[in-house]
Amino acid sequence: MVSVGARRIWLLALVAFLAAIAGVLVGRSISDQRPQEPHALHELLHEELGLDDRQLAQIEELEREFAIKKRALEFELRADNARLAAAIQAEHGYGPRVTAEIDRSHQAMGELQKETMSHIFAMRAILRPDQAQKFDRAVVKALTADAK
């Protein structure tokens, strides 16, 4: 026969395990929702717009700078996800700590989106007017693809 204390420990371990799994799933769903427009725009820039050598060099520099910022923000998001998982494990519900960690991760996600848009506009500034028109259409298409 299993004692009441042992049953409580097993139940607590099960709840903690399920909370950890939930934290991982939430974290994955957040980190897997990366904007797709930079990839589509990268393809457009390098394959369809006919950039000259000067434009290519400027775009490549912007891409290097953005990659550094993006990696830092993605690292921050992963850390936020770990804190959220810990909060879920500690509270076993939608408590104040879980809420605070969600808000914290939303701030980092917002910063990533702002950096992404800043990067997109910086690339656009390098383009000629005819290239910018194609670029603008691709941006709108990328941002509204899921809305259809």
Provide tags for this entry.
single chain; 148 residues; mainly alpha; Four Helix Bundle (Hemerythrin (Met), subunit A); 0% strand
Mind explaining what this structure looks like?
The protein has 148 residues and is an all-alpha fold. The protein has one domain: Four Helix Bundle (Hemerythrin (Met), subunit A) (Up-down Bundle). It is built from 5 helices and no strands. Helix 3 (53-91) runs antiparallel to helix 4. The chain is elongated, with a radius of gyration of 22 Å. The model has no long low-confidence stretch (mean pLDDT 79).
What is the gist of this entry?
With 148 residues, the protein is an all-alpha fold. It contains 5 helices and no strands. The protein has one domain: Up-down Bundle (Four Helix Bundle (Hemerythrin (Met), subunit A)), CATH 1.20.120.1490.
Q: Mean pLDDT, nearest integer?
A: 79
Q: How many H/I helices?
A: 5
Distance between the termini: 58 Å
Q: What can be said about the biggest beta sheet?
A: none
CATH architecture: Up-down Bundle
Structural class: mainly alpha
CATH topology term: Four Helix Bundle (Hemerythrin (Met), subunit A)
CATH class: Mainly Alpha
The number of distinct structural domains comes to 1
List how many beta strands DSSP finds: 0
Low-confidence stretches: none
Radius of gyration, in Å, reads: 22 Å
Order of helices and strands: HHHHH
Beta fraction = under 5%
How helical, in percent, are the residues?
Answer: over 70%
Q: Give the oligomer, counting copies of the same chain as homo and different chains as hetero.
A: single chain
Shape: elongated
